Amino acid sequence: MSSTPPKPSRFAPYKEALASISQRTRTPLPSLIFSFAVLHELTAILPVVGLFYGARALGVGEGIVRAVAPPQGATESSPEGGPSALFTRLRDTWVGERFREWMVEGEVRAERVGRRYGWFGFEKGSKADGTSLEARTAQAESALVSGRVAGDVANAVVAYALTKAFLPVRIGLSLYLSPAFSRAFVQPVGSTFTRLFRR
Hints:
Blueprint: H1 12-25, H2 29-58, H3 61-68, H4 83-91, H5 94-117, H6 133-146, H7 151-165, H8 167-198
Helix pairs in contact: 1-2, 2-7, 2-8, 3-7, 5-6, 5-7
C-alpha cells in the first residue's frame, strides 16, 4: 500500500530559501522567519503610504487610472509618441491586464478601509450595501471602467497596484535584509525578554 506524499505548502520555497540563508549567515531560523515576516509587511505598508502621498502631491492618481483603464467611449487623441500612446500600447498587454486587476483589488480595499476609518470621502463606520465580496469587486470593476474612480480613492488604487507590482523586489529585499534585521533587532529583543522572564 503506497501513500501519496503530502502536498508541499505554498510557503515551502520561502522556507527553503530562509533555511539556506540561515545556514549561510549563522542566524537562527525562527528569528530569520520572524524578521522576514516583519520586513515583508514593512515593504508593503511603507510603499503604499509613500506612493499614496506621492500620487496625491503630484495629482497623478486619476490620470493613471484613466490611462490604464480609460472610461467607456473615450477616444485617444494624443500624438503617436506621447505618454498616452505608451499607456495605450501597454493597456492591451498582460501587464496592463494584471495592473487593472490590482487596481480593482485596490479599489475594494480602499473602500473597505475608507468605510472603517472614515477616509477617502467615506463616512466612518458606514456599511457597504450588504453585497458580497464578488458583487463589490464587480462594482469596483465597473467603476474603474466607467471612470468614476477619483480623488484619494484613485491615489489609493494606484498606490496599491504599484505596491503589488513591486512584489518580487519586496520579497528579494526582505530576504536580503532578514539576517541583518534579525541580528540588529529580533535577537536582542528576544534576549531581553528571555532575561526578564528568567528572573
